[in-house]
Description:
Chain A has helices at about 1-20, 25-45, 50-70, 75-80, 90-100, 110-120, 125-130, 135-150, 160-185, 195-210, 215-230, 255-270, 275-290, 300-310, 315-330, 330-340, 340-345, 350-360, 365-375, 380-390. Chain A is mainly alpha-helical. In chain A, helix 11 packs antiparallel against helix 12. The radius of gyration of chain A is 24 Å and the shape is elongated. Chain B is built from three helices and six strands. In chain B, strand 3 (about 55-60) and strand 4 form a beta hairpin. Chain B is flat and about 45 Å long. Classes of the chains: A mainly alpha, B alpha+beta.
Amino acid sequence: MLTAVFREEAGRLTAALVRALGDFDLAEELVQEALLEAVEHWPLEGIPQKPGAWLLTTARRKAADQFRRRARYREKLAQLEGDGVSLDTAEGDDRLRLIFTCCHPALSREAQVALTLRAVAGLTTVEIARAFITSEATIAQRIVRAKRKIVEANIPYRVPAEREMAERLDEVLAVLYLMFNEGYLATAGAQASRRDLAEDAAWLAGLMVRLMPQEPEALGLLALMRLHLARADSRFDASGGLMLLQDQDRGRWDRERIASGISLLQRAAKWRRPGPYQLQAAIAACHAEARSWEETDWRQIILLYDALMALTPSPVARLNRAIARRYLDGAQAALEDVEALAAPLDNYYLFHATRAELLRDLGHDSDARLALIRALSLTENPAERALLERRLA
Amino acid sequence: MKYVLLFTDSKDRARQWDAMPEAQRQAAYGPINDWFGKYSSKITGGHELQPERTATTVRFNNGKAVVTDGPFIEGKETIGGYAEVTVADLDEAIAMAKEWPTGGPVEVRPVIDRGEPQR
């Protein structure tokens, strides 16, 4: 509940304060302090009827405390106390400016992620630290450094011009996708103490779609996230063990989310500007729509991988294409494709795990075992290790 | 706001450049001159530097100045020149750097301006 309110209000308030104060660093700090106060009060007193206004009042008070100590901010205080801050005017543009600044390419990827989570999605530093299993001090320092660079290097606070837009939007989407993967791949079952980064990333992608409805890749990324989240609960069995797509109980998939992902993808397709996120979402949609593993439309999936590789050649995409070929053209053809990837993917556990499966299919049991042992040496994720160990036993 | 663009190049490429016959080097300057021409209204200072072999470094050992031959940074890259540019913000400086034609990396650094209060 608190999470939903924070997500909706934090970015709005930060954006409004940056506009009023012309000071990104200060605005972001004030919102963070207001959020921390809300974390203390709301669970006991209930969420106020107008949470945005409550946060604004609190941020104003925090500002007054700070400004009293710093004479040169007197003017800014007047700005805050008058009608200088409004939470509604030109709201969409404001939040976009905020997102593009947090995801500016002159900031490191780690800083972009932390800053976006804090300033746009309203996570506290503690929550970000927990999500990335690192210390609060590390995250705090990352954010301080990023904000200092924004001020000192004069990173502009604005929505990029048309000619830069494609590149800058790619950057934002890459930040959100990394955030999503971090949450989606790391969580083995729900942990109450850890805010679900995948859900936060999906919310942010939804915000991008609301603010830039004409961008098909933003729609594609949101579709991709929804389609993955639809299957999130069926990825683990009762004891927390990893369940592969082919073994998952499709009855547990969230049909509503799948339908929404597919309709987003259809909306994106109308623009006739395909991109990597739309293609990956289309592949995920093929899986989501198949009634069983056997009935999956492998031919379509291979075509989609071909299109994806034409846009962004990546050995991981080639590996996935090879896996699809196994069901269309057989294990021998798939193994030949996989073997061709030995050089770029030698340190990737899924390369060896896939090779092991194919070798076993073809009756080369001892080679399969060796490949499994190699795969096991390349992953530390407990759920993945458990799965490989089961196969070795 | 002022920024300095530091133009760097790999040492190998700097040596090739140095060894070029004069006519070829003049031709190679074409795109660089075009860049300076295009941005002449934004460029408020800067110089091309003589090759690294001309560098002398003064170091301090317990306060005593010691003069040595060579650059102070020992690495794969060398600084070939710099331009001071006066532009609106980092994005504008980055846009200029992206068009730098030599293929060498360009470091963009804001200049400290003591003249006006920090935003």
